[in-house]
Amino acid sequence: MDALLLVSFMLASAPQTTGVALHEWISFLFLVPFMIHILLHWRWIITTPLKFFGRSSGDARFNTLWDLTLYLMMVFVVLSGLLISEVALPVLGVAIEPGNFWFTMHHNCSNLLMPMLGIHLALHWSWIVRMIRSALSRQAQPEGN
Amino acid sequence: MERLTENWFSRTLIILVISCLVAWCMYYLEFTDWATAIDATPIDNNAGREGQRPAQALLYILPFIKEVVLIGVPLALTVLTKKLYLSGQRLISARKPAGTESV
Fold first, then answer.
1. Residues A6-57: pLDDT tens digits?
2. Which long-range contacts (CB under 8 A, 24 or more apart) does B20-29 make?
3. Of A23, A37, A71, A99, which sits with the fewest C-beta atoms within 10 Å of its C-beta?
4. Partner-chain contact B45 A107, CB within 8 Å
5. Shortest Cα distance from B50 to chain A (angstroms)?
6. 0.90 exceeded by the pTM?
7. How many whole angstroms separate alpha carbon A36 and alpha carbon B5?
């Protein structure tokens, strides 16, 4: 699911390749794996902020702050994307006058989102490697064992 | 799968409500002087718009290369920094004479 999220993010972040119309529809679809990602890591999201002010390492604190910033940035990019929508929202019957402010914010913040995502992946790198290894070992095992 | 389906509706509703509230607060940025100043300048970035899509096959791949670089470089640097930091910490704790750790 997380791999699907990354792939859909990369597809949604390339409007030069897909064109604006497809970019907007892919971005709408991206919200589904994004929501599933949050639901899958719900326990971590609930417990980590509770530990934030308690006895937790600096690493865990930085991780929590970074994930919160990434979430806020993601909400901001989605909001600015909706406010400059040229295809998807007009098709759904919502007419919007795109402003320069939201266009600039959407462009700059979506570019900023990529290195932020890179750091987010790096912070959870050991977990990602563990998941890939366990998936590969499950695949390597013959069926029925 | 259980982690996903357990109370999924209420949890999704909580995420949606929080996200909408946050977005609603962010929307008020439009009424700041900063936004007005940006709105006053003409739009000069038409990247990704219809009719201006790159003609060559390479130009279709370039946005993905940009993404791989923008995601991959900070990822690699952070992983490397973290590993260096952890190995440095291990080295320092290994050099400490026995008995000084508990003091």
1. 888 888 888 888 888 889 899 989 999 999 999 988 888 888 777 777 777 7
2. B22/A72, B22/A75, B23/A75, B23/A76, B23/A78, B23/A79, B26/A75, B26/A76, B26/A79, B27/A79, B27/A83, B29/A101, B29/A105
3. A37
4. yes
5. 6
6. no
7. 10
